[in-house]
Design brief:
2 strands, 328 residues, mainly alpha, MetI-like fold
Length: 328
């Protein structure tokens, strides 16, 4: 098991290095270079040269990459003999604030939104998929399958607009704008405003997870170990929950890790739609304002979260199915 985790950690580090290398290279393909993109089109040559010198952009590309990697890991000062001074994602000239402080304010809010959506999706999708498998080819299975296809094929922005139209403008039950505040505690004081943003992400995720859970349950219900358990006199509920459930959950564990990137992209649109003050809305506004340090910092965080999600899924997969530890 330890060797399996070490291999996965090594692969995760390689992926993160490649992502950060790609980000460094992207800085040099911006129209007019990073200085003109950050300082604006009216900047003159002297200001560009000074900006490049102050930020090390006049150094060779490999030196710039090493500096950037040292900043986002906090190891640059350590290697220079000054001790660890924390992670540095750069400085936003548009907001006159360090990117690290911006992310520290916004990331917890996005984690709250995504975490609640994930938790609700898993709690609802797993029993829903099992129920559909047990009731396969019945009218309720067909109805739930139709609803799953409806929400699964629905674009995130369109589902959010529909929910706002129905519950905010027609029924006047819920606010059309997400909760506002500087920290996560402020958001908890506005729980009604959380419902629509969370529901927008959760409904699509439930549709996806429940389909996988139904298929996985059906596949396991025809396996030999199920027939053996029934031949020994085990009840249907015991077979389902003591034998089938654990094996049927394995694809869901993998899906949880693999879908983190998709959930983040959905959160970006959802936060922009509901004006939810998280990382997604910040990314949206930074794109409109061409605030590249913020954009790059959020990309690094999103890439790290996606890689860690995949790593967690691999570990959970190995715990659920011990054969994976030796077959990979």
């Amino acid at each position: 098991m330890l060797g399996y985790i070490v291999r996965r950690l090594f692969q995760a580090v390689i992926v993160i290095i490649l992502v950060t290398l790609g980000i460094t290279l992207l800085l040099h393909v911006l129209p007019g270079g990073p200085a003109r993109a950050i300082l604006g089109p009216r900047v003159n040559a002297v200001q560009i040269a000074q900006f490049n010198h102050d930020n090390g952009l006049d150094q060779p590309i490999w030196v710039q990459y090493g500096t950037y990697l040292g900043q986002i890991t906090g190891l640059g000062p350590v290697l220079g003999g000054h001790g660890w001074q924390g992670v540095n994602f750069g400085f936003s000239y548009r907001l006159n604030q360090s990117v690290g402080s911006i992310l520290a304010q916004d990331v917890p809010k996005t984690m709250l939104l995504v975490g609640l959506s994930y938790a609700i999706a898993i709690i609802v999708a797993v029993p829903l998929g099992i129920y559909q498998a047990v009731r396969r080819n019945k009218i309720d299975d067909y109805a739930l399958t139709g609803a799953s296809f409806f929400f699964y094929s629905m674009p995130v922005f369109w589902l959010g607009i529909l929910l706002i139209g129905v519950f905010s403008f027609t029924l006047h039950l819920l606010p059309a704008v997400g909760p506002q505040g500087d920290n996560v505690g402020d958001l908890f004081t506005q729980l009604p405003a959380l419902i629509l943003p969370v529901a927008t992400l959760a409904l699509i995720t439930i549709a996806s997870f429940s389909r996988y859970m139904r298929s996985s349950t059906l596949e396991n219900m025809v396996q030999d170990y199920v027939r053996t358990a029934r031949a020994k006199g085990a009840s249907d509920s015991r077979v389902l929950f003591a034998h089938v459930l654990r094996n049927a959950m394995i694809p869901i564990l993998t899906l949880i890790g693999l879908s983190i990137g998709y959930i983040f992209s959905g959160a970006l649109i959802t936060e922009a739609l509901f004006n939810y003050p998280g990382m997604g809305l910040r990314f949206w506004n930074a794109g409109l304002q061409q605030d590249y340090p913020v954009i790059l910092g959020i990309i690094v965080i999103a890439a790290f979260g996606t890689v860690m999600g995949n790593l967690l899924a691999d570990i959970m997969y190995a715990v659920a199915d011990p054969r994976v530890r030796y077959s990979r």
